Protein 1
Amino acid sequence: MIRMSGLVGFLILTTLLLLSACKYDTSSETDLIYSINKKINEQIKYVSDFEQFGEEERWQFPLETLANGKGDCEDYVILKGYMLSNLTPPRHSSIVFMVSYDQIGKHNAVGHVMLKDLKTGLYLDNNTDSLLTYNDVIQNYVVIEEILFEEFK
């Protein structure tokens, strides 16, 4: 039997339970991505980096966000990317981390998941449980940077 420290064990268990809940609650690829987006939005409280760390910008590791139970928009995207990349086999071809501004100039980061079968993308935002389409994003955001999170063959 393997013994783990309390925090490490908690993080691993939390990750496995979250992944398990997402896998069993869904019947399609889109439902699975929606489930991950919704569960993380419910589980993680939004808080700015300045409020949490006293720094203007700090990206957390996925398990750090889970342990803290809070993070900002980049932390949501990183955690969602981590959850999606740990689904086996990968059901999507890539995860892109987009840093953008909405129409009123508020900074936000959203995740863009390219789906293998549908040849289209879905956008995951911590401000809504709904999966956004390309049209939603171009109407409401101005993309200022994109970073490839992970690509699958």
Protein 2
Amino acid sequence: MSSQKLKIVSLLALSVVLSFFKIPLFPYAPFLTLDLSLLPILIALVALNLRASLQLLIYKFILLSLLQGFSLLVIIGNFTDFLTGCLLVFFMAWLQKDTFWEYFLNVVLTTSIMCGINNWLIFPMYQHFFQIKLSSLLIWTAILPFNVIKCSLLIWLTRLMMKSRLLLHL
């Protein structure tokens, strides 16, 4: 097994383990739980490359769906996390400078797009498959602040690791 593949497998294992440590942020939206499972994927982007990071996102989606069961509820949740990861990775790769404004723009773009995806794709899926009526007010009171917190924390931790040279040996 090559060194690159070993790193990808190790980061995948770390990502899957981290996905099981969830912190609910809003009592009125218990389905929004913060986990740091995207952190190893962002680390892969910085330490390896874009391709490795995207591979990790796909493998994580498949592996978590296998481990948690292929229920529609699990797949929708994992798909939403997958989309968030894709956006974070894409914008971090696109905005390659290590400045506050680049990270701020990443958070704003990812959060804005995820609010739209939730409003026009995820919420209608929940309504169609589970007959759950989700108010668009939930976008502003839960989804928006949740994505700002999650994206900011993940980007800040990744940046902190880059600055402290923790990724040198990866």
Protein 3
Amino acid sequence: MANREERPAGSGKVTALISGILIGILVLALGFYGAVAATQFGKTDKKPDETTTEPTTPSETPEPSSEEPEPSTEEPDPYRKIEAVSSGRLVAIEEDYDTEVHEFGTWTDSEADGNNRPAMIRPIEEMFADIPDDPVTFYCAEPGTKQVAITFQANIETGYTEDVLDILEEQGIKSTFFISRYYAQTMSQSVGRMIHDGHEIGNASNSAPDGGIASQPLNVQMEDALKMQDFMEANFDYTPRKYLFNGGFYSEASVRLMSEMGFQVCFCSCNYEDYYVNREYDSAATLEMLKSKLHDGCVYCFHMTNKITVSILEELIKYIRAQGYEIVQLPYK
């Protein structure tokens, strides 16, 4: 038998080792190639439930809408906000304007101008002509406009309020009632009826000191007006927008203050002195006097503390209308 060539001892192990190394190198090379390929083609590992958001191309960007936005259906608030002024403004008002107290008066004996308006009112009008938006009212309309307003000031009750309200309701008239806090507290049912019947409530101060609220320091006047506002809002859910100086006592500085606080300050052009509780009035003479004061834009002011108001009110209303006048609620400026 022929002899075979014998291999060196251990040559098999060397071969196996070399094979293992080559296989390892091959596996590493394949792994590196796979990672490079994934990077080049944007492939990433993800869980089965994950989603991929495709990038938005310029052609897919939504075009801006050419439709006009829907106009707001909310009505703008026509009223100025009633609020306190700063302490700095209080000082400035006191320094810039006269604080001397004047009494507005009744004007029933005043001479009339060419429009039958009380001539003594004109200088007061001019005093406040520079106030923006003209929120100081003496008349309800300009000459040439046949309109009249009937207003009332109420501090105390002597038994005539409901009669007055009945006449206004029967005649279809809306009025403005300037009331004090004392009246609002003691006559809450009547005040509620005023609001229910469509009448306007004005602020005639929280208190009524001798000489009028205008005789007090400006900060006291401001606090007084705001207390009345708070009372009306808390007890009647109502915000008065107009202000009348109780008793007719005012100063230039006081009017400026109330205007800056947001009030429309109201005076009148025929302020009747029916505030004497026990005075006896002649109904016929009173009615003729009030008729003689009628003018374009006339603002009558009554006080409801004497029976004379109830006695002549209906006849006065009929006379005013017979002269071609419309009786309106005191307008807001």
Protein 4
Amino acid sequence: MHLFGEKAGRTRERPAKQLTSARRKTALHWRAGNFLSDAQYLPISYHLTFFDLQVSMSLRHLRTSVVARASHNLADKKRHPCCGRWCAKCTNFYDSGARPGLWRSMKILVTGGNGFIGSVVVRMLRARGLDIRCLVRRTSRLDRIAHLGCEFVVGDLLDFSSLQSAAKGCEVVIHLAGIAKWNLMHSPFMFDVVAGGTLNVLRAATAAGIERMVYVSSIVALAGTPGPALQNEDSRSPLRLERYPYAEAKHRAEEFCREYSDRISVSIVNPGEVYGPNDIELVTAGNLIDFARSNPVAVCKGGTSIVYVDDVAAGIIVALEKGRNRERYILAGENITVRHLAGLTNKLLSLRKTFITLPTPAIRATSWLARKFHVPLPFNPEIVPYATLYWFTDNRKAVRELGVRFRNAESTLQPTLEWCMNTGRIPAGLRRAA
């Protein structure tokens, strides 16, 4: 396909050798200054589209070039996934989505931008010079993003009027806010906040005329098998959802997104078990700390797809640019058992431990009794119903359509453990050359 589009007419194509050289220079420039230090993990499309933008703008044929080469294949479908027809408004939006440089005129609403994943998303967007508005609560901790120069709007997912105010003047939404703490997995507000809150965001976004949204769900909405089995974006949840309130709420939130997809273009991303620095709530880092402190180390039969937080954040941004309406994209890396996760943690810490695999029925019964009668345990009993299942996923769709890449398990855990040690969360006496 021609770089300049077949209708460029008055210009000649750049020779292939010269084009390759120009793209190489642009890629080096992009890595050096236009993104973060993790640019080597970003899809190659990040390094190519900036050059395409400059050429298209100089030729005054941006629309022809973008429509001819758009990654969502509008030319093939002949209909827009948002409104079902061709229109200048939708085409203008996807021009912006396909060309990062045009986003500087956009205002992006991010819910949950102060959280573990959201703070990295906001940091990456601000590094590109984008205008970010974050929905926060009055009690929210802002230390992870306070220095980034974002606009803060106080509101709540259950307060529709506050969401309307937050959405006013924004063009796109990234919705991450919800409940993710293990001690709140059985909260009576789980469904209202996660599912009902997502519905409120969709209503506020459509009322404000917002055309594009990415909903950050989880692999709990599509995986969770009793034995090792790969699940993909088309998989139906194998769980009895009423027993897993968090999974049920995420699943229903996704259904709301699909119900609204004729009014707003919504892509859904499903991160795996996310690790990385600055997990101050210890949602996942707590697992590694427990493995490091315990001896012997008690583990259960089960497994998960682990992923580094920066890879998830980069995937969310690419999904906003290139994701298709109504589609899921799994953002997860290596599939790993709980036993392997515990062993790799201690290996990276140069610790030798004894590992004991507990029978699944026994550990489930113990955790249930502990929750019911408030009996203290050396582990969080809320984790057990999820940890004793397998959350193995197939990420090939996200790799193929979005161009994302993911670190392996060792590269995911290493910086997380370093952060735990540097902040004293892993005791000094356990420190080794990690």
